[in-house]
Structure formats: structure tokens, C-alpha cells
Amino acid sequence: MNSLPDCQTLLLELHNGVLHITLNRPECRNAMSLQMVAELRSVLAAVRDKPGVRALVIGGVGGHFCAGGDIKDMASAHAQGTSAHRDTNRVFGVLLQEVQHAPQVVITVLQGAVLGGGLGLACVSDIALADHQAQFGLPETSLGLLPAQIAPFVVQRIGLTETRRLALTAARFDGHQARRMGLVHFVEHDPQALAERLDEVLAHVLCCAPGANAATKKLLLASAGEPSNALLDQAAEWFSEAVSGAEGVEGTLAFVQKRKPGWAS
Predict the structure, then answer these.
(1) Residues β-bridged to residue 52
(2) CA dihedral angle for residue 218, residue 221, residue 226, residue 232, rounded to 10 degrees
(3) What is the DSSP string of 61-93?
(4) Which domains does the chain have, with CATH numbers?
(5) Could you report the per-residue pLDDT of 113-155, keeping only the tens digit for each?
(6) What's the rounded Cα separation, in Å, for the pair 169 and 143?
(7) What distance in Å separates the CA atoms of residue 45 and residue 174, rounded to the nearest whole number?
């Protein structure tokens, strides 16, 4: 398909009706930059009305899925003021909504870091496969921030009780724990087994009619209830206040300086 956009932060490979989208920023464990968000959205838009593309498989290079948002983008937004923080944060929520509502079956292959926005991306996939040693977590509060755009989708995926524990402790957990929570569907112990499981899942997906799958997905999401635009707008406001506040400034500075923030010393 020659209608796929050119991307600098993504690797794209279309084969037998399956588009493999690989996050490609290995130098920062595939942290989600604004450019990556924009490129993901452009790919989703390009294939939305393409019935020949029946599944999207999202993974990452270098043994990691996604380490969350790019702190450099956050620092750049800080220089532009509060509204830039709000807008930068909110666009990631738009991406999550668009992945959630993609007519294709969305499969995530989760290895290494699955943190913050990476965990959010896993939560809006239809089927999630994980390596047993993958490291999941919501580290935002340990940085003086909040998982503003991510939290509603995590609650929808694993429930309020587990999300409260994870978000309010910034605890890390592995693939087996993610499976017990219902965040992922399959856990494998090596890359070969993960690849074989992906082939098996795709074989089942491709047995289903694409139009019926798209309509069924729409029905299921409507049945479960959706994070609202109003909630995500408000969350972006809270995020911009947090990242500009004393805790957010200290937390992100401590992260960059590779030290503990003041409240954790």
C-alpha cells in the first residue's frame, strides 16, 4: 500500500492484511514524542477506511515497548507556558481514543518498558501479548505529575481498585501480574514464543470478517462506556497545573538529573 505516510519515529510493514507498526526511538526506550504521536495518528487515519488492512500490530524496537512520554517535549512545553502543557497532554488522549476506535483489530506486543503512555496504549488494544519480564507501571505521581490522559483508559481496562493502587504508588509489575489483572491476555517466556503466539492470534483474527469485526468492536465499546472528552479535557487542565507546579518542576528535574525528588529523599 503506497498510501502509508512517511514516518521517522515508526517502522511500518504491511503483510497479508496486517500492518506492523513498530515504535522506533531506541535511544529513549521508544518514549512517546509529539512527533511519534502525530505519526501514529496519521497512520491510523491512512488505514481507517482501508478494509484490506485487517489488523494493526504495535510493538517497539530494542526490546522495549514504550517508556512513556518524552520528558524533552515536556520541558519544551514548559517554556511555552501552561496552555502548551495542556495541549501537549490532551493530544495523547486523542491518540488513545483513535487507537481504541480503530476499525481494525489492534494487537500490542509488550516487552521491556511498558510505562505511562506505553501502558495506556496497551490498555486501548483489543488483544495484548506480553513478555513475562516486561515492566509495567504508572510512574507519573513519582514525578510530581498525574496520569491524566491514561488513567480513564486504565480504569476501563482493569477496574478502579487496581488502578488506584498502581497510580498512587507508582508500583512496577511484570507480565504475569499484568495477566492476573486482565491488562494482557497472553504471557510468554521468550521472543520465539511471543512471535508464535502473535501468529496464532492473527490466524484467528483473519478468520473473522473485517466488517463484522469492526461493527462488533464498536458495539462492545459502546456497551462498556467510554472515557468522555469532557473528562479528558479536565484531566489535561489538571496535568498542566501539576507539571507547572512545584512538585512537577522538582519531579521532572530530578528525573533528568537521575536523582530522587525531594519528597522521596
Answers:
(1) none
(2) -70
(3) STT-SB--B-HHHHHHHHHH-HHHHHHHHHHHH
(4) 10-189 (3.90.226.10)
(5) 999 999 999 999 999 999 999 999 999 999 999 999 999 999 9
(6) 12
(7) 32
